[in-house]
Design brief:
This protein is α+β, with helices and mostly antiparallel strands. It has five helices and twelve strands. It comes from Palleronia salina.
Length: 304
C-alpha cells in the first residue's frame, strides 16, 4: 500500500554526519553485489494505477553498478548511529506512523492521517521502537521509520549512495525481463508464498501479518538480492514527477529535476490485491522525503 504522504519538516540530520573511516567504508562497499550494465525493459506494459507512471515500458541502458543484496538492517543502522550520533526525524519529533493492525491497543492511538485510518500516530515510535514504547527493533529486520534524508545521512557515513530508480529495478529483476516478479510472473510460484505482503482481508490482519521479516527472508533473485518485492518500501535517489515518464531509450536516467516527493520501490508488508497491489517488481509510489513510516526503509548502492 502507499505510504503516508505527509510532510514532516526537512528530515535532515540534527548534526553533520562525517564519513566513516576508510576501513569501514571499504568493508561496507565489499558487501555490495555487482550488477552488469546493458539494456533492460523498465516498467510495465499497463498499470492499474496510472498516477504511479510505472507504464509504459521503456528501454533503458545502464552502466555497471553495485548494490546491497539486502535492505539496511536495524543492526547496520545501529552501527551507523553509534558511530555518528545521528538522530532520525521520528526520534527528534517524538512520533511516527504505525499500522494499527500491529498495535496491541490501537484505540490508545486514535490520531490518523485523513482517509488512512489504518495508520496511527504513535508517540515514541521510531527505528529503535518500531511499534512504539516497549517494542524492540530486531537486528536482522529492515530498519523502518527512516526518512529519505535519514537514508542519505547513512549513505554519507558509509561512502555509498541510494540507487537510482532505474538501477533499483534493474537489480530487483534479477536478470529476468518483462516479468512481474523477480522469480517470474506467478504471484505464488508452485503455490508457495514468495514475498512478505498482506495475507488478511485488508486492513484486518491475518495470522501471517506480523510486520517486517528478516532481510534475508524468502529466496533471493537471480542477482542474489532479497525482498525486492514486499517487506518494506525502499527509498531511491529519484524525485517523483507528477507526469508521464519519457518513452524511448534512456541512458543512466536519474529522474526529474523537480517533483513533489521521492520515489519508493518494491511494495511492503501492507500491499494487498484488494487495495494496493503495488508489490510487483515494476511498482512505484511517492512519499514526502521527510515522512517516516513503519513500512519503509532503504538499500544502498555504489558505482562499479
Amino acid at each position: 500500500m502507499a505510504a503516508v504522504k505527509k510532510p514532516r519538516g526537512n528530515g535532515a540530520a540534527t548534526s553533520p554526519v562525517q564519513p566513516a573511516d576508510a576501513a569501514t567504508r571499504a568493508a561496507l562497499a565489499k558487501k555490495l553485489v555487482a550488477i552488469p550494465g546493458g539494456f533492460f525493459d523498465m516498467g510495465a506494459r499497463q498499470s492499474r494505477f496510472p498516477g504511479d507512471h510505472d507504464a509504459p515500458r521503456r528501454r533503458v541502458k545502464l552502466a555497471p553498478f553495485r548494490i546491497s543484496h539486502v535492505a539496511c538492517s536495524n543492526a547496520q543502522f545501529a552501527r551507523f548511529v553509534a558511530a555518528t550520533g545521528h538522530v532520525t526525524l521520528a526520534e527528534a519529533e517524538g512520533w511516527s506512523s504505525v499500522f494499527a493492525g500491529l498495535l496491541d491497543r490501537p484505540d490508545d492511538w486514535p490520531q490518523s492521517p485523513p482517509g488512512l485510518p489504518w495508520w496511527r500516530r504513535v508517540e515514541g515510535a521510531c527505528w529503535r521502537a518500531p511499534r512504539g514504547p516497549g517494542s524492540v527493533a530486531l537486528d536482522d529486520h529492515p530498519v523502518v521509520h527512516v526518512t529519505w534524508h535519514d537514508a542519505q545521512a547513512y549513505c554519507r557515513w558509509a561512502g555509498l549512495c541510494l540507487p537510482t530508480e532505474a538501477q533499483w529495478e534493474r537489480a530487483a529483476r534479477g536478470g529476468l525481463d518483462r516479468r512481474k516478479f523477480p522469480w517470474g510472473s506467478e504471484m505464488r510460484p508452485g503455490g508457495r508464498i514468495a514475498m512478505n505482503v498482506f495475507e488478511g482481508a485488508f486492513p484486518v490482519p491475518g495470522p501471517a501479518d506480523t510486520g517486517t521479516v528478516p532481510v534475508t527472508a524468502f529466496a533471493p533473485n537471480g542477482y542474489g538480492l532479497y525482498n525486492t518485492c514486499g517487506n518494506v518500501w525502499e527509498w531511491v535517489a529519484d524525485r517523483f514527477a507528477d507526469a508521464a515518464l519519457p518513452k524511448g531509450p534512456l541512458s543512466d536516467p536519474t529522474g526529474p529535476d523537480t517533483g513533489p516527493g521521492r520515489v519508493q520501490r518494491g511494495g511492503s508488508y501492507l500491499c494487498h490485491a484488494s487495495y494496493c497491489d503495488r508489490y510487483f517488481v515494476h511498482s512505484r509510489t511517492a512519499n514526502d522525503p521527510g515522512s517516516p513510516t513503519g513500512n519503509a526503509g532503504f538499500r544502498v548502492a555504489a558505482p562499479a
